[in-house]
Design goal:
Blueprint: H1 5-25, H2 31-34, E1 41-43, H3 45-66, H4 70-80, E2 92-94, H5 97-112, H6 115-131, H7 144-154, H8 159-168, H9 176-186, H10 192-211, H11 217-232, H12 237-255, H13 260-277, H14 281-296
Helix pairs in contact: 3-5, 3-14, 4-14, 5-6, 7-13, 9-10, 9-12, 10-11, 10-13, 11-12
Length: about 300
């Protein structure tokens, strides 16, 4: 008896389903073999390479926002050769090929001070990071030598450069009083090590904003701010709301007598101490200085 059209269609559809399932389940067959996902994990030399690249981009970005001249770059280079932080080699990082290439292009654009490309590449880097966040362990400690050298680094700059740099920051310059009050609010529900970390970080930050890095008074301010935060942390809910005004007055008596201009000076010292501590600052400064010398010879930018 001849098979009906419906029977033929049913058998054909069943065969199609079997083929499709085999393509999806069995490794190395059909669709799964057409396009393999990229493994963004980098190890050993590859991880160390992207860490070096990211640190150089960070240093060059600071120079870009400072609009540093040839003489200033040379001065910063002389300081950085004695202040760079020591770090252990990176063992692992995570970044896509597109992210790495964009970072390389951005480094070149920053060296060449190509503003149009710099803007576009920063936007592209942010988009790539949104799609697949990179994990590059480029953090480092600010060195003692950089802390001591940072006031000299600030003196290399003009007032206009400082204003321009502060205006370019994505985050606001922290205010010591607001920092203390916000820490009590943010830390209300924190306990144990989480609270201690927030408390101690705030105390140290307020101390250098008020006193600078190289002041003997910084230790005393750190201790006083820590004690004030600890007292404020005992209040919760409605009790905290009632005490906030009095708490702010105590914070103002503790750290509010410093001129905002002095706070800005200390903040700039902190920014330049970070630049001078960057393990790849010397490489970045040399690359930028070489470019300026090509463009300007021995004359100022």
């Amino acid at each position: 008896m001849a098979a009906s059209t419906r029977d033929i269609w049913t058998r054909s559809f069943g065969s199609f389903l079997l083929v499709l399932l085999s393509m999806l389940i069995i490794p190395g067959i059909g669709i799964s073999d057409d396009k393999k996902a990229e493994d963004p994990v980098l190890k050993g030399p590859a991880a160390e390479e992207i860490v070096r690249l990211k640190r150089e981009v960070d240093a060059l970005e600071t120079l870009y926002h400072l609009e540093a001249t040839k003489t200033q770059v040379a001065g910063l280079l002389a300081l950085a050769e004695k202040t760079a932080a020591k770090t252990a080699p990176a063992t692992e990082a995570k970044a896509s090929t597109a992210y790495i290439q964009t970072l390389k292009d951005l480094r070149t654009a920053l060296i060449q001070d190509d503003e149009e490309k710099i803007t576009a590449l920063f936007e592209k880097l942010a988009e790539l990071d949104d799609l697949e966040p990179a994990e590059v362990p480029e953090e480092f400690e600010i060195s003692d030598a950089a802390m001591k050298a940072s006031p000299a680094a600030v003196k290399l700059l003009t007032p206009a450069q400082v204003v321009s740099y502060l205006a370019a920051l994505e985050t606001e310059v922290p205010d010591p009083i607001e920092r203390i009050v916000n820490t009590v609010r943010e830390g209300e529900e924190l306990t144990g090590d989480e609270w201690k970390t927030l408390r101690d970080d705030t105390a140290k930050e307020v101390a250098w904003l008020v006193n600078g890095f190289n002041s003997d008074a910084a230790k005393a301010t750190t201790r006083s701010v820590s004690e004030l935060l600890e007292r404020g942390h005992h209040f919760k809910g409605e009790a905290l709301k009632k005490e906030l005004d009095a708490f702010e007055q105590n914070a103002r008596r503790l750290a509010g007598g410093v001129s905002p201009i002095v706070v800005l000076q200390h903040y700039m010292e902190r920014e330049l101490a970070e630049l001078l501590s960057n393990p790849r600052a010397v490489a970045a400064l040399k690359a930028r200085l070489e470019q300026l010398q090509k463009l300007n010879g021995t004359s100022e930018k």
